[in-house]
Structure formats: structure tokens, C-alpha cells
Amino acid sequence: MNKQLLIASSLLLFVAFYFGGSYLYQKSNVNVSSDKQSALVRPTAFVLGNPDAKTTIVEFFDPACETCKSFYPFVKNILKQHPDKLKLVLRYAPFHTDSYYVVAMIEAARLQNKYLEALEVIYKYQDKWASHTGTPNIGLIWSFLPEAGIDVEQLKNDMKKPEIDAIIKQDIADTKTLGVRATPEFFVNAKPLVKFGKIELQALIDSEL
Amino acid sequence: MNQTQKSSQKAWLILFLAWVVTMISTLGSLFFSEIMLFPPCVLCWYQRICMYPLTLIFIVGIFSNDRTVFRYSLPLVAVGLFFALYHNLLYYGIVPEKLAPCTQGVSCTSDYIHWFGFITIQGLSLFAFSLLAALLYFFQKVSR
């Protein structure tokens, strides 16, 4: 066989495989299949907005993730625009080192009715405690939490509760079931955000309203 | 066909195979990051830096039937093999992770694929670089 022809046809084949594969992959990646939908929303998960809203946004987040921090006010703002039609279910994807404990703090703050306050203060000081060049210094968070009116001693005790552990473990198991690999990951009425971005998220929510 | 022609044919085929390996690795890794949207970690980038130019070096080599391609490709294969080996040691916990700080929150030990229980992306990379090293060895042996 002619060498040039062999090279050219292999090249063509590679390109065809690549684009054919991407087409098939994107086509197969539309909805969360019905057998996995129970993993999207758990009754224990924190819900923001109208609990009876017909459009559900599920966000998997990691408190140490910068993109999650930048999406938080954005999503909150969308929620404010449609207070009756939207709800946001917050789920944990503690992928970073020690994020597990930070998530446990947020969950323990919920027992003091300070869930969002804790989350907001943790995001606010994210650049102080969540260094990406080394191990995060989550010990610093203790000193930020009183700003949100949280009783830190109480929180430390509550964090040891097995219910909190169970919630986080369930969320981590659900990230595996749903194939959540990066944060933040959004699902709107079980449709995953395929192309990541604020504009894309807004469009996905609008199409589901 | 005389002996030199035969070995030249063989050398060309080995080089062609090496090019195929680099193409599959390159497009495969691009598929993981661009289509499946797995964020590549730092070590993956170092391996990519070594793998991607090999596609071009080998294609020039197979077009011009250039024996010296061995010299130009070996350093890239060696460096890539080193990083792939290190990455796998890190993944299996033989080397502690603290030595490799990962930027942008992507850990070099997180699992993106786990096919049949043992195939991982870093495993595929190690396989590809080892195969390239072996092919280059045979190429040099045949073409000498």
C-alpha cells in the first residue's frame, strides 16, 4: 500500500473518530436517567426558595471552590427574580482536601438555623482559608463563624453527630452516581448543564421556567 | 527485495505504529478534556507537553523516512515516561501526594475513569509512553 495514502487515510480516520465520538457522547448526555433521579434531590438536602416550585435547580458545590463562590450570588439573584417558580437544592461535592470538614461545619450551622449565613461567611473568606498552593487552613474558619452569629462551641459539638456524617456521605455517593466530577455542577429539572457557563446556566433555567 | 530494503520497510512500519500511538493518545486526551470535560491536572499537562509534539515529529519522520527521528523523539518520550511513571506512583500512593501541589483544585490522584476496575487515564498514559519507548528501541535496532 502506498505510504502517503496510508498516512492520509489514517489521519482521516482519526479525525472522523474524534468528531463522531464527540457527537455521540454529547447526544447520549442529555437527561439524568430515571433510575438515577433519586440521587439528585434528597429530603435531607438544604432547599432555598419556594419548596413547592416546579423548577428545581440542583447545585453540587464545594466550599473551597472559587467558581462555586462566584456562581453563588449569580444563582441567588436568579432565584430572587422568580421567587415562586424556582427552588435551589444545595448538595455537597467536597472534592478538595479537608472540604469534608467545612461541609460538616455548614451542615452543623444548619442546626442553629444559620446555613446560608455560614456558607456566605465561608465563601467570603475563601481566599484566606482555602489556599490552592498547599493544604487549606480550615482552622481559620472558626474565627470567621462568629461574624455570622454562630455559636462555635455548639457547632463543634454538632459536627460530631452521625446524622451530619450520613448526609455528607450520601451526597458524596450521589456525586458518583450522577457522575459529578467538577464543581459547581448544576442540574435543572434533572437536565445537566452540558456547556458550563453563567450564560448557559441562565439559558437552561429560562428554558425550564 | 534485499535485506536493507526489508529492514527499511520494517523501520518505517514501526515508526508508523509509533505515530498511530501518539495520535490516539493525543486525540484521546483531548476527548477527555474537551468533550467529556475532565479538567487535566498538572501532571497530565506535563505528559501532554511531551505527547502532542510527537505526533508532528513522527509524521515528518514517516513522510521523509528519516532515521534521525529517533534522536528527536527519544527525549520527549523519556520525559513523558518519567512523568507518567511518577503520576502512577502518586495515584497508587507509593509517592505521597504532598510533593505535587495541584493548581486550580484538580488533584492528580482523583479518578476520572476506572474501566474494568484497573484502567485509569494515567495508566493509559504510562502504557502509551512505554509502548513508544519500546517501539523506538526496535526502530533503532532495525534501522542500524
3D structure, described in words:
By secondary structure, chain A is α+β, with helices and mostly antiparallel strands. Chain A has 9 helices and 5 strands. Chain A has helices spanning 3-28, 66-81, 99-110, 115-124, 126-129, 141-144, 152-158, 162-178, 198-208, and strands at residues 46-49, 55-61, 86-92, 185-188, 191-192. In chain A, strands 1-3-2-4-5 form a 5-stranded mixed beta sheet. Chain A starts with a helix and ends with a helix. Chain B is mostly helical. In chain B, helix 2 runs antiparallel to helix 3. Chain B is elongated, with a radius of gyration of 17 Å. The A-B interface holds A 3-4, 6-7, 10-11, 14, 17-18, 21-22, 25-26, 62, 64-66, 95-97, 132-135, 181-182, 196 and B 12, 16, 19-20, 23-24, 27, 30-31, 34-39, 59, 62-63, 98, 101-105, 107, 110, 112.
User: How would you state the average pLDDT of chain B, rounded?
Assistant: 84
Counting helices, strands and paired strands, the structural category of chain A is alpha+beta
In total, how many beta strands of chain B? 0
The radius of gyration of chain A is 21 Å
Can I get a quick summary?
Chain A is α+β, with helices and mostly antiparallel strands and 209 residues long. Chain A has helices at 3-28, 66-81, 99-110, 115-124, 126-129, 141-144, 152-158, 162-178, 198-208; strands at 46-49, 55-61, 86-92, 185-188, 191-192.
List keywords for this structure.
heterodimer, A: alpha+beta, Glutaredoxin, five-stranded mixed β-sheet, 5 strands, 11% strand, B: 144 residues, mainly alpha, Bromodomain-like, 71% helix, 0% strand
Topology:
The complex is a heterodimer of chains A (209) and B (144).
Chain A: H1 3-28, E1 46-49, E2 55-61, H2 66-81, E3 86-92, H3 99-110, H4 115-124, H5 126-129, H6 141-144, H7 152-158, H8 162-178, E4 185-188, E5 191-192, H9 198-208
Parallel strand pairs in A: 2-3
Antiparallel strand pairs in A: 1-3, 2-4, 4-5
Chain B: H1 3-35, H2 42-64, H3 69-91, H4 121-143
